[in-house]
Structure formats: C-alpha cells, structure tokens
Amino acid sequence: MKTQFLYHPENDKYIASQIIEAVDLQQSHSLQGMKIGDINALGEGVFEAIKNCEVLILLVGTTFGKIAPIIWMNALQHRNAIVGIDIHTISDEWGETRKKGGTFDTEGNMDGQKTANLFEIHELPEGQDGILYIKDNIKTWCNEAIEHVDSNYGNT
C-alpha cells in the first residue's frame, strides 16, 4: 500500500523522521515525508500527494489543528483511508515530550451518507516506547482504515 505521512515541519520533524525510518511502508512516490506547516503551505503538490496515496497517515503533534480538517476532508473526497497517530508522548531530540494538543472532531458524513467516525486518532500507551508501538501496529491500523472507508463510503 502507498502511504503519505503528514506532520508539522518544525515541531514534529524529528519525531516524524524516527517513525518513518522505523516503519516498513511504501511511501507515495510524489512527495516522500511531506511536511505540512500552516494554511499558506498548502499547494497543489499537497493535494496531488494525497490523491496518489492509499493511506494518509497524520502524525498529530501539538500544532496540527488548523490544517488537519482541510487535509482529511481532501483525503476522504478521494476515498483515501486515514490513520491519525497522536505523537505528543514521544520524546523529541531534547528528550522532552509535549502537552497534548487539541482534540479533533473526526465524526461526519460523506456525500450525505450515514454519519460515522471518519477516521481514528490512535493514542500511544503510556510507559511504552511510542516508536516501537507504532511500528508494531501501523500496518494493522492502515488495513483497518482501508476497511473502514470501504464499508462506510465505498471506493470510487
């Protein structure tokens, strides 16, 4: 499956690079490790990368709130699966973790169909190595997300 990781370019770059290096997933050929910062960073390349992947993996740190809804709605328009991962508990390059960012409303509907959870944001268990936990679970999460989109919205 082709995946695309999205994350904040300054705040989450170090953690994202550790995750991307640890997991064994084929990234979208268009923009590997694409970073999203703010509304002004959105361009055609971002939406082209989303369109060309099967699973969009949102690494949700503390500052992703403004951009995330635009990104996930675009992905769902293309019937792409989405996996959200809350990464605030993973230590950064200085060994620090961050406070949890805001919560996201991930419930809605597509094309007037039934209301459902659009995607899940996975929390990492406390006291475990977050990178290892992601590595051990990400393929399952991706497959579950694909099944969720297929069963709730169909693939076009």
Task: Explain how this protein is built.
It is a single chain. The chain has 4 helices and 7 strands. With 156 residues, it is α/β, with parallel strands linked by helices. The protein has one domain: Rossmann fold. The strands form 2 sheets. A 5-stranded parallel β-sheet has the order 2-1-3-4-7. Strand 5 and strand 6 form a beta hairpin. It starts with a strand and ends with a helix.
Short description:
This protein is of the alpha/beta class and 156 residues long. 33% of the residues lie in helices and 17% in strands.
Summarize the SSE layout with pairings:
Layout: E1 2-6, H1 13-22, E2 26-27, H2 44-51, E3 55-60, H3 68-77, E4 81-86, E5 107-108, E6 116-117, E7 120-122, H4 130-153
Parallel strand pairs: 1-2, 1-3, 3-4, 4-7
Antiparallel strand pairs: 5-6
- List the strand order in the largest sheet: 2-1-3-4-7
CATH topology: Rossmann fold
Q: Tally the helices.
A: 4
Low-confidence parts lasting 5 or more residues at pLDDT below 50?
28-40
Supply the key terms.
single chain; 156 residues; alpha/beta; Rossmann fold; five-stranded parallel sheet; two-stranded antiparallel sheet; 7 strands; 33% helix; 17% strand
